[in-house]
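Late entry, written up from scratch paper. The run itself happened at the end of the previous shift, but nothing got recorded in the book at the time, so transcribing now.
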Amino acid sequence: MKTTKLILMAFLSVMTCPYSAAGDEGEEPALPPLHLNCTQSLTDFLLLRQETYLNRMISAEETTTQVLKQTLETLVQVRDTLNEVNAKLGGNKDRKPDNGAVCQSPFTQVGERCLLLALQEKLTWASARQFCAGYGADLAHFADANTFAAVLGYVNTINFQRKDINVWVGGTDEAVEDTWLWVTGELMPRGPPFWGTYDGYALQPNAGTSQNCAVLWKADYYYLHDLPCTHKCAPLCQK
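Output as recorded:
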């Protein structure tokens, strides 16, 4: 519709413009040329209209950009707020006990937890839990790679003699096969960098219903493996 109006206005401008004189005497042209001033006025009009359209487009684009920028800022604020809420609600799962910042002997403070690795004990998984319960603790668990790295550092420090001893942690899929849970009821992390491999290619856990308890496997640099719960290993307690 706007284009039709523009063509009509241009046509009316042409029809109302004065014509210049004929080029040769005695020869009347069929369509005399437009007067120079009229042609220039029409050109200016068309350029002005085009400039108006461009200005409107630029204004609309600036408005859209501003809206997108405000939306992005709002989303960033929402993300930061959710992170703070999650940290308050779930960030205390692996923190040190409420009864003091310093772990009591024989426990050692590792990050924000108190750990005890009893290398001298050789117990089944269930007996290992009972052993830890005697100290008001349970088998160790971890939710992220940084905490896992700290646990491995502690285990290697305690086992400075590099004894061939595997270490129980508080993970099992005994209730539901292949659904690995910590003793806290939380899902265990799966895959690298937590679980190791068997013979360098078979990703753990891989033994089905015959092996339902999680252990730090010495032969695989203490990466997680599954073992029969009746196997005897050293307990790693946490409180």
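Residues 19-32, 91-99 have pLDDT under 50 and may be disordered.
(Scratch paper discarded after transcription.)
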